[in-house]
Amino acid sequence: TEVGILAKSYIDQGRLIPDDIMTRLMLNELKGLDRYNWLLDGFPRTVAQAEVLDKECQIDTVIDLDVPFETIKCRLTARWIHPASGRVYNLEFSPPKVQGIDDITGEPLVQRDDDKPETVTKRLQAYDAQTKPVLEYYRKKGLLKSFSGTETNKIWPHIYAFLQTKLPDVSQKDAATPR
């Protein structure tokens, strides 16, 4: 879409998408989901986005994944893709059989512009500066729950147990079923 292309231009420059564009994208996606439980990942990132979201939707809880900057940077900069298929490799935990080469086609892998070290650093710094006030916004509303760690398999059980207290009738198996 036109707004999607505009958003991509910001991402490719290592910049965060402006509030008005991001909220337009997200609220459009959320229309019609009132029969479902849903989880947003990475939105809202600013207080302005949070305020618009709160006017349109009832927010029950906000989860903060407190992961060190260096852990995120290492994971993102180790990511390489096969452009034609979209296959994703990570040099740390799911590398290709031959470095820089797609396992299936033998074609070269590329690193997306937004995964290059300098772009990742710039994005993470901007993200941190903009999201601290959002965390405080939701903390004051009593909606924020933080989880700290560096490994998904160690953080996830705690998050899942917490979500069970919020949605006790939803299991992993039927989490995508409308209610």
From TrEMBL:
It catalyses: GTP + AMP = GDP + ADP. It comes from the Eukaryota. SUPFAM superfamilies: Microbial and mitochondrial ADK, insert 'zinc finger' domain, P-loop containing nucleoside triphosphate hydrolases. It holds the Pfam family ADK_lid. The keyword Manganese does not apply. GO terms for molecular function: AMP kinase activity; ATP binding. Keywords: Kinase, Nucleotide-binding, Transferase. Residues 79-114 form the Adenylate kinase active site lid domain. InterPro entries: Adenylat/UMP-CMP_kin, Adenylat_kinase_CS, Adenylate_kinase_lid-dom, ADK_active_lid_dom_sf, P-loop_NTPase. Belongs to the adenylate kinase family. This is Adenylate kinase 3. It comes from Chlamydotis macqueenii (Macqueen's bustard).
